Amino acid sequence: MEALTKLGIGENEAVLYEILLKTPDATIADLQKKSDFSRTMLYYIVGNLETMGLATSEKRGSKTTFTAEPPDKLHDFLKSREEDLARQKNSLAQTVASLSSEYRLANNKPGIRYFEGRDGFAEALDDALSSPETVYSFVDIDALQKYAADINAEHVKRRRAKKVDKKVLMQDTPAARAFIEHLGPEQTEVRLLPRDLKPFGTGMQIYDGKISYFTLREHNIMAIIISDPEIYAMNRSMFEYWWKIGSTPKPVTGSTAFRSE
After folding, report:
1. Contact 133, 205 (CB under 8 A)
2. Residue 67: its H or E element
3. Strand (E) positions, 139-238?
4. Which among 21, 64, 115, 187 would be 20 to 30 A from 180, CA to CA?
């Protein structure tokens, strides 16, 4: 029994499994005679063994019999536990990151979360979908279209479905104007900054007390979300300043091209 419990099998389940190995096609009445468990407890324990893949049941007339699976099935049980543990570790990492951010924020320390790769970028981008206020964003349109156009397109669909408004600042380039024409105005307001500005080199979102930065490069896709009211307030103020400077693109009469006011 000790060997079974070391594999993560409960003590009661280990006891009953060993009994079932020696008593094929046992009924609950048979198991009551060979153990100290009550009838109700036996149904509960054998149910756990079936869930683990270590026992099976068969209806025979008015009776149900239970049989232990061969000991080789313990390999499958252990593999299943390892897969569960891997999923739990992944979930734990996300939970710790989220709770750590809340902890730091409650203790007046900036909460910082890091994301890597395209999946990480998508997760960080979608964090703004829960924003109760307008999202303010600086966009590196060239990098976005080159490395994550598909991710952004799906994000825009979800954002519009959730009715989350967004104000976007991007440099006035042909790529930006083509993007704006395709994007459309729904839940989105765009202004253009002078094209002689140095390229952003990164994207940024300001929302709900948070700042997110995005780096999109061929071998370096990453994101950072900072939760801090002071950092948020400063960056929102900076965005509002640039928003006043930005120009609103409008279609040129008789053309699908855009001009700036």
Report:
1. no
2. strand 63-68
3. 166-171, 188-193, 203-207, 210-217, 220-227
4. 115
Both tokens assigned to 40? 């109700």
Residues in a beta bridge with 166: 135, 188
Convert the pLDDT of each residue in 151-195 to its tens digit: 999 999 999 999 999 999 998 888 888 888 888 888 999 999 987
At residue 125, the pLDDT reads 94
Give the CA angle between residues 252, 202, 207 to the nearest 5°. Answer: 85
CATH number for the region 2-71 comes to: 1.10.10.10
Phi then psi for residue 128, to 5 deg, are: -75, -10
* Domain limits, the chain: 2-71, 73-109, 110-260
Give Cα separations from 242 to 91, 102, 117, 134, 179 (angstroms). 39, 30, 30, 16, 20
How far is the C-alpha of 147 from the C-alpha of 116, rounded, in Å? 13
What digits encode the pLDDT tens for the residues 91-109?
A: 777 677 667 666 665 666 6
Strand partners, 203: 214
